[in-house]
Amino acid sequence: MAQREWVEKDFYKELGVASDASQDEIKRAARKILAENHPDRNPGNSVAEERYKAASEAKEVLTDPAKRKEYDETRRLFAGGGFGRGRFSGGGGGFGGFGGGDGQEFNLNDLFDAAGQTGGANIGDLFGGLFGRGGAQPRPSRPRRGNDLETETELSFLEATKGVAMPLRLTSPAPCTNCHGSGARPGTSPKVCPTCNGAGVVNRNQGAFGFSEPCTECRGSGSIIEHPCDECRGTGVTTRTRTINVRIPPGVEDGQRIRLAGQGEAGLRGAPSGDLYVTVHVRPDKVFGRNGDDLTVTVPVSFHELALGTTLSVPTLEGKVGVRVPKGTSDGRILRVRGRGVPKRSGGNGDLLVTVKVAVPPNLEGEAAEALEAYAKAERASGFDPRAGWAGSR
């Protein structure tokens, strides 16, 4: 995004946050706006589409610490007309003209466009060229990279732990399929601008000052399309709905973001596409839980199984496994089974943590009740007191 646009747009206002908002506040605000105005939820709604694009731009800048710092500094530099008594012309951005001694007015849009549209040149480069510092040559203008996009998907617990390949439907700017992103009609191609030789800017001298300004012939792009594509009108980009196959790796966690390089918004006129970030939401499972890379499960057992010991059949991600319960195991004990947990990114698996929990019969009658009464008498006769030492002498 051009720094000129940074001056003209208030990204904080776009997301409804204060200029000193934390990263978490910015992300929450952006996530809400993007979800409410997503094209899939608002088909044919141009207002929602523009709101979605504006929020995406704001989020891209404000969630990147380096871009946010540069944005804040740029806004502070120009918002107050910070060049003494100079006047700026912002081309509708609300800035007066920047006047030289002879009353000449310079356009702020031209200044920023001369600095480059891709962030390749900074403000220091711009004003170094403005005052003739070092006679630096103008940098070639490069097509602008596409914006990053964000979307969300929901997985079952097993899909998240074992991994899954799934289709993802997106409505976003994408390379034009007619011209393959070049912007030129099929059978033709853009040509290098003869005026600026592909640099996108031209130099001129005004007294003691040297200026670099956008080439009027190619509008700073460095190339000319004589026969624009009929479908994208020379931009190389169209908004379309597409389905991409996404491979969710094993072990993904709830709320984790997955980056898909080059699957974001298409760049203008053949520039690289942005990236796509997929936020994964995992539905809870009725049986399994998770603690990092460890799989957790709670198994109901009877008292006699803990007292006498037994072997339990316990479910895992890959079928069932036998877990030995030692004689005299206490209620709530956690038994560990190595290597039966969630796949790790570094290879291998976490562990299976089995918690044994005594299930008490709600209604005990007949022989079972009589047998338990007999056991209780025998237990008391043996001297066993389950509350011995409990609560001290109280």
UniProtKB/TrEMBL annotation:
Its main location: cytoplasm. Keywords: Chaperone, Cytoplasm, DNA replication, Metal-binding, Repeat, Stress response, Zinc, Zinc-finger. One of its GO terms (cellular component) is cytoplasm. Its cofactor is Zn(2+). It comes from the Bacteria. Residues 48-61 have a biased composition (Basic and acidic residues). Zn(2+) 1 binds at C176, C179, C229, C232. Binds 2 Zn(2+) ions per monomer. A zinc finger (CR-type) spans 163-241. GO terms for biological process: DNA replication; protein refolding; response to heat. GO terms for molecular function: ATP binding; heat shock protein binding; unfolded protein binding; zinc ion binding. Residues 163-241 form the CR-type domain. Zn(2+) 2 binds at C193, C196, C215, C218. Residues 10-75 form the J domain. Homodimer. Belongs to the DnaJ family. HAMAP family: DnaJ (MF_01152). The J domain is necessary and sufficient to stimulate DnaK ATPase activity. Zinc center 1 plays an important role in the autonomous, DnaK-independent chaperone activity of DnaJ. Zinc center 2 is essential for interaction with DnaK and for DnaJ activity. Participates actively in the response to hyperosmotic and heat shock by preventing the aggregation of stress-denatured proteins and by disaggregating proteins, also in an autonomous, DnaK-independent fashion. Unfolded proteins bind initially to DnaJ; upon interaction with the DnaJ-bound protein, DnaK hydrolyzes its bound ATP, resulting in the formation of a stable complex. GrpE releases ADP from DnaK; ATP binding to DnaK triggers the release of the substrate protein, thus completing the reaction cycle. This is Chaperone protein DnaJ. It comes from Mycolicibacterium poriferae. The gene is dnaJ_1.
